[in-house]
């Protein structure tokens, strides 16, 4: 069976919307679209959907769960032939996170990653605003935290500890 | 069946992955044993980065081979002489200064290596390298901060940090030795010639050692062999632990 072109575009948009609702298991406030992980959705003339996602931190164990989530959401949206492909080209970076995603993170209590990943001087410390009180009087506790994507900081103005989304 | 890849690009990626895997496993041995909770978490994160980089490199190598091997075959079904990691990364953890000196030497090599590998004509490899380079910057920073703290610390921590570099320095030259495979991979635009990276390595290490009040050991002889499959005794013990489950229960899953 071959689908008409207009229907193809519509189905592809529907497939994208379904895939875009999948959330990150470690930071459930963010969808894979917010994170810039959702890279491409292709539909062929048989109706089969191929979703391409970008793996994040090398040590992040969430990609398996995310792939499964994409298959589940697409099945629920009525797509029965779905495959998920991981690619490193292009490489994922925190720079791919949307503005909306950054705001969601801040509201959730996690300081969003700074822009310009990879441009940070090797021995510099980034300036990170406190996601709770907005103060820039913050200090790093540890560059590694509870998951591969987070570092531990504290605010010396409101005295609250907080997490910072690691910039890569 | 021969376990040596017939494809030189795959072979080169597997060798790179071997270095990351063995060091990642070594760091994982610190889990639940590190001096503080934050450091325990840091070392586990560094281990995860390296094992994740290995998975990406092995997976790409297996795609290039187009055969039946996968990342698990490479990690769990090869014997000592089939691993091609440099000797440095299989050295035991020793004390905390030994682990940090080993990590600074490796990461100060790996950072410029991956930065250069971003130019690979294989888009997947270039992407893996781009991400790995950003991750390795965290490794260099972490190891450097500790080396400075230990070197410029108490007389005991200074002595241990100096002893660590004196001991491990002879494993550094192997990282920068290019063999025929390296030259071939660099020439065709796929890989990197490690002998071009010694300057970048020295530029990272020099200021750190100075700030740590440590003496840069004299370059004398280099211990080598891992990259052609001739290892120190330590790797057998490491593999025995790392591969035990898949050797005892082949294809076990959970």
Describe this structure in words.
The complex is a heterodimer of chains A (168) and B (254). Chain A is built from four helices and seven strands; from the N terminus they run ααββαβαββββ. Chain A has helices at 5-19, 32-35, 63-76, 99-108; strands spanning 38-43, 49-53, 82-86, 110-111, 138-142, 150-155, 161-165. Chain A has a four-stranded mixed β-sheet. In chain A, strands 1-2-3 form a three-stranded mixed β-sheet. In chain A, strand 5 (138-142) and strand 6 (150-155) form a beta hairpin. The termini of chain A are far apart. With 254 residues, chain B is mainly alpha-helical. Chain B contains eleven helices and no strands. Classes of the chains: A alpha/beta (168), B mainly alpha (254). Chains A and B meet through loops of A and helix 2 and helix 6 of B.
A few lines on this structure:
The complex is a heterodimer of chains A (168) and B (254). Chain A is of the alpha/beta class and 168 residues long.
Label this structure with key terms.
heterodimer; A: about 170 residues; alpha/beta; GMP Synthetase, Chain A, domain 3; 4-stranded mixed sheet; 4 helices; 7 strands; about 20% strand; B: about 250 residues; mainly alpha; globular
Helices and strands, with pairings:
The complex is a heterodimer of chains A (168) and B (254).
Chain A: H1 5-19, H2 32-35, E1 38-43, E2 49-53, H3 63-76, E3 82-86, H4 99-108, E4 110-111, E5 138-142, E6 150-155, E7 161-165
Chain B: H1 8-28, H2 37-65, H3 71-76, H4 87-90, H5 96-117, H6 123-151, H7 155-168, H8 172-175, H9 180-187, H10 198-211, H11 234-248
Helix pairs in contact in B: 1-2, 2-6, 5-6, 5-7, 5-10, 6-10
């Amino acid at each position: 069976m071959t689908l008409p072109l207009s229907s193809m575009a519509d189905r592809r948009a529907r497939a994208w919307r379904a895939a875009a609702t999948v959330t990150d298991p470690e930071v459930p406030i963010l969808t894979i679209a917010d994170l810039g992980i959702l890279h491409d959705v292709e539909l062929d003339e048989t109706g089969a959907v191929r979703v391409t996602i970008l793996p994040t931190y090398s040590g992040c164990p969430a990609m398996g769960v995310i792939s499964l989530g994409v298959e589940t959401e697409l099945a629920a949206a009525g797509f029965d032939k779905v495959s998920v492909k991981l690619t490193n080209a292009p490489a994922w970076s925190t720079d791919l996170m949307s503005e909306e995603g950054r705001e969601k993170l801040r509201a959730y209590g996690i300081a969003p990653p700074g822009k310009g990943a990879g441009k940070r001087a090797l021995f510099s410390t980034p300036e990170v605003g406190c996601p709770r009180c907005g103060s820039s009087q913050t200090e790093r506790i540890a560059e590694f935290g509870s998951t591969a994507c987070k570092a531990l900081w504290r605010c010396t103005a409101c005295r609250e500890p907080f997490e910072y989304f690691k910039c890569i | 069946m021969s376990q040596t890849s017939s494809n030189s690009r795959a072979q080169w990626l597997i060798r790179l992955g071997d270095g990351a895997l063995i060091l990642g496993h070594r760091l994982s041995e610190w889990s639940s044993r590190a001096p503080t909770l934050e450091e325990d978490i840091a070392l586990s994160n560094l281990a995860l980065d390296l094992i994740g980089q290995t998975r990406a490199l092995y997976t790409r190598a297996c795609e290039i081979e187009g055969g039946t091997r996968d990342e698990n075959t490479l990690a769990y079904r090869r014997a000592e002489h089939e691993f091609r990691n440099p000797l440095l990364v299989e050295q035991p953890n020793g004390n905390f200064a030994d682990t940090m000196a080993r990590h600074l030497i490796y990461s100060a090599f790996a950072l410029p290596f991956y930065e250069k590998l971003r130019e690979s004509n294989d888009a997947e490899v270039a992407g893996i390298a781009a991400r790995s380079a950003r991750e390795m910057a965290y490794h260099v920073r972490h190891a450097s901060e500790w080396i400075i703290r230990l070197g410029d610390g108490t007389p005991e921590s200074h002595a241990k940090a100096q002893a660590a570099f004196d001991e491990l320095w002879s494993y550094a030259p192997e990282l920068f030795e290019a063999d025929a495979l390296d030259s071939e991979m660099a020439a065709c635009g796929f890989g990197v010639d490690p002998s071009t990276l010694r300057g970048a390595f020295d530029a990272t290490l020099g200021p750190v050692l100075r700030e740590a009040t440590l003496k840069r050991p004299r370059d004398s002889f280099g211990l080598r062999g891992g990259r052609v499959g001739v290892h120190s005794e330590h790797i057998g013990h490491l593999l025995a632990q790392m591969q035990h489950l898949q050797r005892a229960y082949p294809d076990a899953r959970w």
